[in-house]
Amino acid sequence: MARFSRRTMLAASVASAASGSGRAAAPGDRPNILWLVSEDNNPYIGAYGDKLAHTPTLDGLARRGILYRNVYSAAPVCAPSRFGLITGAYAESCAPANHMRAQARLPDGWRTTPQFMREAGYYCTNNSKTDYNCDVDPSRVWNESSNDAHWRNRSAGQPFFSVFNHMTTHESEVFRTFEGRVKPEDIKVPAYLPDTLEIRRDFATYYNLIEKMDGELGAKLAELDQAGLTDDTIVFYYSDNGGVLPRSKRYCYDEGVRCALIAYLPPKWAHLAPGRPGSVVESPVSLIDLPPTVLALAGQPKPPQMHGTPLFGTVAPTPQRYAFSMRNRMDERYDMVRTVTDGRWRYIRNYMPHLPAGQQQAYAWLAKGYQSFEAEHLAGRLMPEQERFFQPRPFEELYDLRTDPAEINNLAAAPAGQAKLRELRRALDSQMLKINDNGFIPEDSSLEAQIAGRGANSAYPLPRLMALAALACGRNAANLMALRRDLGHDNEAVRYWAAMGLLMLGRGAAPALGAVRARLRSETSPQVKVVLAEALGQAGHPAEAVALLARVLDNDRSRRVKLQAINALQRLGAAARPALPAAERAAATGDEYLKNSARYLKLKLNGHYTPSTPIFDTSTLANLSSRQVRLRL
Questions:
Q1: What pTM does this model have?
Q2: Of 184, 185, 176, 182, which is closest to residue 208 (Cα–Cα)?
């Protein structure tokens, strides 16, 4: 296979345009566009060099098309990632879309990818998962969005943009063993996981599901052939986020955000391709680039709301050096992580380093692999590189993926990593400022509605917040006076991160407890109150903290504030027992995440928790069809 960087692609496109071989798509002479999407998988695909994979359809597509080697989702889970696919914008630029299964309101003037394509004359269908993490009504933006939606229902001669979402590799399918060609004994377990039978079985199931998915993709391509449309259709295959095995989906390591992307352009449209059939693009690519690519193929300009860059089309692509991803709340657990890669190096910034990456999550823990991983942790049998998942993290992580693909050796403090650390640190800072990263706003704050999708705003002093959060994450008692001072700031987000800094100091914040109590008496933000209360508890006054958090659970109307309070109680351990009745009352509101977190808290306080204890309400699984559960989760 020929290998192309984005710089090489740009030069080739410019040369093509200069020679007159590149031509714009004229009305009535535009390609059909087909997106074949798989759920939750890394490139465990033969064309990517995986020796265990059996993926003849995708391998054949790569031989005839363009394989993108280093492809990343904008988030390591479906909902915020799919927000990017439907809008072309990073979810963290439009809070609360940065949180898992939130309901962001699209800013005035924003439109979705299918709406832009319909305006260009395309017939647009989605079959059938949506999960867009915002207030988009699928029935209004697509011509069809259903289990039966199909390009064949278009008007005669009308070009189509059709999406088929294949659920076969979804996380839920790994909850049971799927036997096939790959056996547990065939698996080489990565060094960050313990070598247990349960983990081996999950890996084997995953490989076998990917083989099954590959066959389903083959059937979709056969439909094109049978309709005589292969020569008129540009085909994209990609996965919506990384894989589902432990330390992948929901996490900002490569396994969580690295995806597959293969594009096939038939001879009729080969002049738009970034290289010859069988080419490999090595430079980093983000799934956020797909919406502007589709618009470019339809001859449409990129709208201002879109952050990505067309990968190919009638206009030469702009070379990109980096791909960015993020994490905020995942299911019922809070965190904030930002990451950037250049394809070889990955830099990770943990804005809540006092928390472990591996917080128990009810739905993910239905997988036997996660249960086994935590059981080994509780039994004290993990190696140091495995135990790290359950321990507090450093503020910064840096990995050389060429020599350390498992991301074991953190080079952030190593002399050999300093030049790359400074480069990627600057790149991430620049990106966060460019898109006005909303992640420093506590979930369900009124600030979300004021800031989301609006760019720089005096109500959201992002440069100051970034500096304050970095100060807080240093967990240095020498910064106590600065943190105390910002407790009195007039901006809620500034007060929140000042409180977070005191919380992360633990007992080191004791000299500031008078200021904390004074702030609690005047604080109007329930989110800030939750952090201040936990800071009291972690500094050595748990009874006082638990009483405050119980009042939040009983009196606050926001489900997400209640969830923040339950998370804080969980971290206070046995001292949280007096608040358990309030947590159970909060869980009775019907919110799935409140129920899961309250059940976990109760089991932990009563000493009944084991990793295999079902926290997730399995009656949900029993009462819904398999397809409904997967679409919902």
A1: 0.94
A2: 182
Using an 8 Å Cβ cutoff, are 488 and 459 in contact?
no
pLDDT digits (tens, 9 = 90+) for 233-288: 999 999 999 999 999 999 999 999 999 999 999 999 999 999 999 999 999 999 99
CA 448 to chain centre: 19
**CB contact at 8 A, 61 and 214:** no
User: Rounded to an integer, what distance in angstroms lies between the CA atom of residue 243 and that of residue 245?
Assistant: 6
Contact by Cβ (8 Å): 201, 373: no
All structural domains of the chain, each given as residue ranges with its CATH number in brackets, are 3-313+320-327 (3.40.720.10), 463-632 (1.25.10.10)
Long-range contacts of 184-192 (CB under 8 A, 24+ apart): 186/52, 187/52, 190/406, 191/383, 191/385, 191/386, 191/406, 191/408, 192/247, 192/385, 192/386, 192/388, 192/389, 192/406, 192/407, 192/408
Cα–chain center distance at 130: 15
Residue 114 CB-density burial (10 A; 0-12 exposed, 13-18 middle, 19+ buried): buried
d(CA 213, CA 57): 10
Rounded to the nearest 10 degrees, what angle do helices 580-587 and 592-606 cross at? 150
Q: Do the beta carbons of residue 213 and residue 192 sit within 8 Å?
A: no
The pair of structure tokens assigned to 550 is 């119980």
Q: CA dist 118 to 111, 115, 243, 247, 363, Å?
A: 11, 5, 32, 39, 37
Neighbours of 566 (CB within 10 A): 26
Residues labelled as active-site residues: 78
Nearest residue to 351 (alpha-carbon basis) of 340, 335, 363:
335
Segments in 251-391 forming alpha helices (H): 254-257, 290-297, 368-378, 384-387
DSSP helix, strand, coil percent of the chain (3-state; round to 5):
45, 10, 40
Chain centroid, CA 375 distance in Å: 26
Helices then strands, counting H and E runs in the chain, come out as 23, 14
Other residues' Cβ atoms within 10 Å of the Cβ of residue 557: 9
In whole angstroms, give the CA distance from residue 81 to residue 287: 8
Q: What is the pLDDT of residue 620?
A: 61
Q: In 96-230, where do the E strands start and end?
A: 123-127, 144-145, 160-166
Selection from 94, 4, 37, 13 nearest residue 296 by Cα: 13
Amino acid at 458: S
